[in-house]
Write the structure tokens for this entry.
Amino acid sequence: VSRTTKGTGTSRAATSRDTSRTGTRGRAERPPAARRRRSTPARRVPRAIVAERRSTTRTGRFAAGSPRRRLIAVLVALAVLLLAVLVRVGALQTSQGANLRAAGARQWTRTREIQATRGTIFDRNGEELAMSVPASTVTVNPKLIDDPAATASILQGVLGLTDERRAELQETMADKDRGFVYVARQIDDAVGEQIDALDLVGVDVVSEDRRILPGGMTGRSVIGQTDIDGIGTAGLELQFDDVLTGSGGEETREVAPGGRSIPGTESVARPPVPGDDLILTLDRSIQFATERALIEQVEQLGARGANAIVMDTDTGELLAMASVRRNADTGVVEVASGNYAVVDADEPGSVAKVVTVAASLNEGAITPETAFEVPWRKQWYDDLLADAEQHPTEWWTAQEILVHSSNIGTMEIQQRIGRERHWEYMRAFGLGEKTALDFPGESTGIMKTPDELWGSERVTVAYGQGFASTSIQLASAINTIANDGTYVAPKLVAATVGADGTVTESAPSATHEVVSPTTAQEVQSYMMQVVCRGTAETAQIDGFTVAGKTGTGYKPQANGTYFDEAGRRVYYSSFVGFFPAEDPQATILISVDEPPAETNGRFGSQAAAPVFARLAPTIIHEQGFQPPPVTTGCAGG
Amino acid sequence: VTVALRTPPHRQHPGDASPATPAPSSAARRVQLRVVPGRRRAAGFAAFLSTLVAIVMLGAAVLHTRLAERQLEIDRLERSVGAAQERFDVLRRHRAELRAPNRLAVEAERLGMVPSAAGDFVAVDGWTIARAIAAAGDLPSSEDEIRALEPLDQYRLVKQVDVEGGP
């Protein structure tokens, strides 16, 4: 240091001296010779130093040269190297980053889909009708199983597999071309945990929901069912499959070489979104009571099956919709898997007389005082048509025709309004077209246009023969009378519950006026008399006045007649009523399929109306109905 | 500590017009020494920087530790929530099965109960009802709020938690 400082000092001194010699002349004016002279002393290095430098820096022909240049070269090289590294890192992190990360993740992680929980189906009170519960599914990866026989034996012991199933499983696991095989699906979680605890290589236990009906068979015909994959295949499960099914998520887990999962590395990459829930208008208790009443009646009568519908008169909400059938093999009557109340269409019989009477009254074609001459039988077109029972020729009003359920009288009433207008009223009552339920497999019924009707069909439609309707159509039509002339579409889904717990109410049922309130109330009074002193006395209940109409229709057979192979007529009996008659709140349809032809049980008054009477107290209790403040009951008629 | 040795420049006085300046004396030409404090400041700055970096790194370590602790706590809570939801679903299923009408009917029959053959309605005035309620002490309390919720409302609340904070 001192040496360099000394030299610098010498140089500065020389410069100072040189400046004093040149006076004030600038550098531009200085001649080249002067610049050379001036610079010469500055470069002068003492001889001793030069000798030292030579001895220390020159090592023969491999002298390194200037260190400054070496440093710069090294710096540039390092800078280039660093820049290259930065560029590479940038490229890896940006353009190639996603692919590389994914490739890396594929090597040490495995992804599986998380099944979204299927929505629950509730009744109107929040009681579960159908729900999904956690279960376990056991799968194997044959490629990872070294000893299929041992693994199959262990699984057989835990799962209780048969020897045949164990042998089949062992054979399957020996097939190394397969990478995935189901062993058991939707078993109890406890068993699944037991297998999982064994930590068998190649055996995996995953969670998979199982669909159950906590109420047993209650409501099964309406709810429908799902397949083992949780996809709706019938009923509401099918109709609202999109709503009930959520969107699945993804779970990743790290795996060790060999494919074994590393415990504790599971993470949810994409959480599943559960499906929406359905809140039905059904009341589980009423549904159960309805099904039970139908089963008892079918068993008692020896009928083939029965349907029932309980409807809120004002809103069209269905409180119950039941179908029961006798098992052809076992003879046991049970809740049907199909919703025959909307799928099957049958000739409604005398219940349809209500529509004919209401239409004629509303059109002014008849009045309550209009009387008709009614023989017990009469020739219409090519057929001699008759009432159900022989009676002398009477002069009956519309009320008496309805109370006595006269076919001849009803056809006379239809003649006043005309077939075309009658047909239009039938359509306005909702017959011949699907209801707003749009239930899977729902029938439109069978209803020819007036031009298509042939022979006596043109008049028998007035009393319910010659066209077919579903139970839900018929209940909705009669409910129009109970609802003071306004048709209200039936409703089965009250609301949905979203994934965030938000309740979305369904839109109110569509309505349209079919007959005037005056006409409807007039017909209500007729129907009340039907129950009080007509064909439906068996439908009376304590404390409430009931209005209704029985129907006994013939059921067409595959041979094209109304008779079975044994030559017996086949019947379809029904009763539709509502109460309290003074202010209807519930409309109930009961229909019995193929009651025995040889007994009085074939009539709606004996097959269906008693079920109404047995069922009504439960509905009154569950719905909290109270008798109207003023009631005249049957005495007022 | 290092010191820099500097030779002070020769100064020419303004009044000194003579071009032949006499040579300075040996005392004037002696090198003057003084301490340059710059390196001490640098050392202090380096120490300060080192301390700052150490503090920042320590803070980052503490922060990461806290984050990890919080994440562990979140994981634990999420597992707890998940377990509680599973428990809720199990209980919900159990409750639904217990309240199923068919089970109740079978149980009622086992106990010898039969459906009512007839029913009647009795008019009860409001004061009688109020007195009966007051005598029974059946007044709502905050403790009963959750129990007072309808099953569907309970289910909705749990589902809400599942979506907002669940795994």
